[in-house]
Amino acid sequence: MRSRHEAVFDEPDIVEEHDESIGISTDHIAVVTRVGEGWRAVVDGLPDGKVVVAHGSTWAETTHNVGDALSEAVTPEPPYVLGYHMVPADPDADSALGAVMIARSERVHAEQAERDAVRHAVRVFLGQGWSTRDAARALLLSQERVIRLAAEMEGRAARGKPRPPAE
Fold first, then answer.
1. pLDDT score recorded for residue 77
2. CA-CA distances (angstroms) from residue 105 to 57, 111, 154?
3. Considering the chain, what percentage of its residues have pLDDT values greater than 70?
4. pLDDT over threshold 70, residue 18
5. Is the peptide bond prior to 76 cis by the omega test (within 30 degrees of 0)?
6. Are 43 and 28 within 8 A, CB to CB?
7. How far apart are CA 156 and CA 151, in angstroms?
8. Is the pLDDT of residue 143 over 70?
9. Which domains does the chain have, with CATH numbers?
10. 54 contacts 41 by C-beta, under 8 angstroms
């Protein structure tokens, strides 16, 4: 049985380096209002004074429609790509959604910090001659996980790309 301590390794590492091939996002804000049974989103501040208005019966449909409408109204020049996010017009809803997004971002960074700390501990323990079994027990991980982490770190070092040590 896999422990919850192992689950953190199911998520990818945060990549801090910017990949130039992805492009740079031009971020637009769609202010979303509940209208009857559906939603209305407005994006203003676009080039040439353009304003995009999109509707949908669900939040997902409205999000999709905003993307389509923005794609028709704005053509970013490379390396820029079109980016937008949906913001509730209601301040309480906006605050609630913002709190969720902040909490999720903090969780992702905390999980990365845990992965970095575990890798550092594995490096220290094995460097001091600990067995993989003892390192695993101390870290509340399976021995297989410790062996796999050690192999990954060895592979990175061989490629000249070691992860920075945990702070």
1. 74
2. 28, 10, 29
3. 86
4. no
5. no
6. yes
7. 9
8. yes
9. 24-89 (3.30.2390), 97-158 (no CATH)
10. yes
Q: What is the CB-side half-sphere exposure of residue 112 using CA atoms within 13 A? A: 15
Burial degree of 61 (CB within 10 A; 0-12, 13-18, 19+): middle
Residue 84: how many other CB atoms lie within 10 Å: 20
Give the pLDDT of residue 83: 87
What kind and span of H or E run contains 28? strand 24-35
Give the pLDDT score at 157.
72
Q: What is the DSSP letter of 10?
A: G
Alpha-carbon distance of 50 to 69, in angstroms, equals 11
Are the C-beta atoms of residues 167 and 120 closer than 8 Å to each other? no
DSSP for 62-102, please give it.
HHHHHHHHHHHH--PPTTEEEEEEEEESSHHHHHHHHHHHH
- Give percent of the chain with pLDDT exceeding 90: 66
Q: How far is CA 164 from the centre of its chain?
A: 20
Which tops the pLDDT comparison, 82 or 167? 82
* The two structure tokens encoding residue 131: 């067995």
pLDDT tens readout for residues 42-91 = 999 898 899 999 999 999 999 999 999 998 998 877 767 788 999 999 99
